Amino acid sequence: MSLTADLQALVGPKGLITDPAQAAPYLTDWRQRWHGSAQAIVRPATTADLSAVMTYCYQHDVAMVPQGGNTGLAGGATPAANGQAVVIQLGRMQQIRALDRDNQTLTAEAGCILQDLQTAAAAADRYFPLSLGAEGRCQIG
Q: Among 87, 84, 82, which residue's Cα sits nearest to residue 29?
């Protein structure tokens, strides 16, 4: 099988992007300064999916570029131009797993949008102490 077929088997058809037009937003940083290329954009929906993808890429020596909301300003979430990497985009992992008022903790998946965490904390009469200009789009990571 091919890399893309193997990855699709791990994450399903909704979890893999190979079409150049659909992949384009994941290959350029937020400020449009850095541009890269990738073999695929993988969008795992669960931690089990993510673990399987990372294990596969490690075993097959495939470079991985983790990406949240792609709102960083340093280009770290943009793959290299050589097209050898796989972008692991975490946007489908958006579940808030737990909010514990007594212990003042919130457990969330990596793709949760910062503003959603702030809203959930406020609904529990708590404050999530992080505010960024991109809070409506950036992911917790």
A: 87
Contacts of 65 (CB under 8 A, 6+ apart): 36, 38, 77, 78, 79, 85, 86, 87, 88
Using alpha carbons, select from 101, 130, 107 the residue that is nearest to residue 118: 130
> Phi-psi region for residue 75, left (φ > 0), alpha (ψ -120 to 50) or beta?
left
User: pTM of the prediction?
Assistant: 0.87
What's the token pair of residue 39?
Answer: 């073999």
Residue 141 has pLDDT above 80, yes or no: no
Q: pLDDT value at position 107?
A: 94
CA distance 115 to 105: 16
